[in-house]
Amino acid sequence: MKKTLSHVDKDGNAKMVDVGHKANTDRTAKAFGRVVFTPEVFTQLKNSGFAGKKGSIIQTAVIAGIQGVKQTSTLIPMCHPLPVNSISIDIVPGENCMEIECTVKCSGKTGVEMEALTGVSVSALTIYDMCKALSHDIHITNIQLEEKSGGKSDFKR
Question: Which H helix or E strand runs over 31?
């Protein structure tokens, strides 16, 4: 069966998918991203306990990511507002980087992939914002869906 874009009608116009006929099912999505620093900046962050003048970099980014998940439907035009059951954002230091993982769960008619990706993205942007005074040589990379379950199909990278 040929796959088609779900947010474009037969005439090429943007549309929001009608999910009214679908049953509520448990859905989960997990996304990942990384914020990469120069070794000098990462060492400085590590030595400060990942805190700056604005407070804890990691905890602020977690809170921002949670807010981002809850705002996904206002940021991404074709996303449905969803009753999210849980949001988990983990940020751990890696080698000259911070690795972000966001897991979102809901019981609904459509998946939460965009919410998980938005959570990672907003967390990464918050880390950038809190660290840019040290250097603008910061890279936000590898934002991707790691897995999803529920709905028509499951996915695992």
Answer: strand 25-36
